[in-house]
Amino acid sequence: MRAYRIPAAGARAQWAETPVRRPGSGEILLRTAAAGVCRTDLEIIDHGVQFAPFTHPYTIGHENVGYVAELGAGVEDLAIGDAVVVNAGGTCGLCSYCRSGDDNYCSARPVYYGTRDDGGLAPYLTVRRRDVVGIGGLDPRLAAPLGDAGATAYGLVNAVRPYITDNGHVVVIGIGGLGSFALQLLRLLSSARVIAVDVAGKLEHARRRGAHETVVSGPDAAAEIMRLTGGRGADAVLDFVGIDPTLALGAKVARPLGCVGVVGTGGGSTPFGFFGPRPGVRMFTHASCTLRELEELVELTERGLLEIDAEFFPFAEAEHAYDLLRAGKITGRAVLTFDGARPTA
């Protein structure tokens, strides 16, 4: 089958033929229905970044939905044709983090779909049964972004909720695929007034997705946020960009005992010391969401509580989709769609 693959450490992605791997015990073979493309992919393709040590050539794509095409030995609770979303970071289920319910911080991940091991930019993908969640009647094309963009936003929103006071303020930096989810989830799960920060061209979309206030990113953003919060600062800042200016902004506007949660992989840094940020501010990075949170996210979407922003491209146009993503011309998520009928028993 034709797949979009990383052939060597630091090498750019290329089209290549690779065999379909049959499922082993506890695994399933999926016929790929849809795969989201992400800026994490661009870090790998353009800059040679590896989010896990490179061990072998692999197919990229970590935001995947597929139909069950074949069951490995011991898989008895799924049927051929079932539609599932893949949890991008497979978990061991045995380490202390997995056993305590913090499986998104698994210390012994056996598989990294699309960032070290084969992902979804191919017609077929073999995954472990424990790494998938059924999507019910959701459109697979719309469900694909739940596996990473939605999951990461939901996990971070849940992580900052303990810091949000009644009718407080939350700042969301970066209104792309993840930020669009975060705006909606904050409106759904908190009473906070939500302030969106991005370039001017993205702020109307931010308002449509739930932002109470919008601020143009730039040198005046911190002063404007402090004005909007009455000088108090934000209970929480969610940084979906992660470059020097956005990290500095978060550190400036978080209130005492507030927090700054970072999932943006822009490679930035910011000074940290006794005199800044403000006293008691917690700054942390966050890893996606737990498997249970992914199930909850699917349930919220099935209930019609979330709008999924996506632009669709045929799988053969993957490189065009990545070009548009590089150029900042994608609203929400770019999703690759695949030909092929839903398998039947």
Task: Explain what the structure shows.
The longest helix is centred in the middle third of the chain and has 13 residues, at 177-189. With 345 residues, this protein is α/β, with parallel strands linked by helices. It folds into two domains: 2-148 and 289-337, Medium-chain alcohol dehydrogenases, catalytic domain (Quinone Oxidoreductase, Chain A, domain 1, Alpha-Beta Complex), CATH 3.90.180.10; 152-285, Rossmann fold (3-Layer(aba) Sandwich), CATH 3.40.50. Strands 3, 5, 6, 7, 8, 15 and 16 form a seven-stranded mixed β-sheet that branches. Strands 11-10-9-12-13-14 form a six-stranded parallel β-sheet, with helices on both faces. The protein has a three-stranded antiparallel β-sheet with strand order 2-1-4, with no helix packed on it. The protein is globular and about 60 Å long. 25% of the residues lie in helices and 25% in strands. The chain contains ten helices and 16 strands. Helix 4 (149-160) crosses helix 5 and helix 7 (221-228) packs parallel to helix 8.
Question: How would you state the average pLDDT, rounded?
Answer: 96
Give the N-terminus to C-terminus distance in angstroms: 22 Å
Count the domains: 2
CATH class of the largest domain: Alpha Beta
Instruction: Give the DSSP E fraction (strand runs of 2 or more residues).
Output: 25-35%
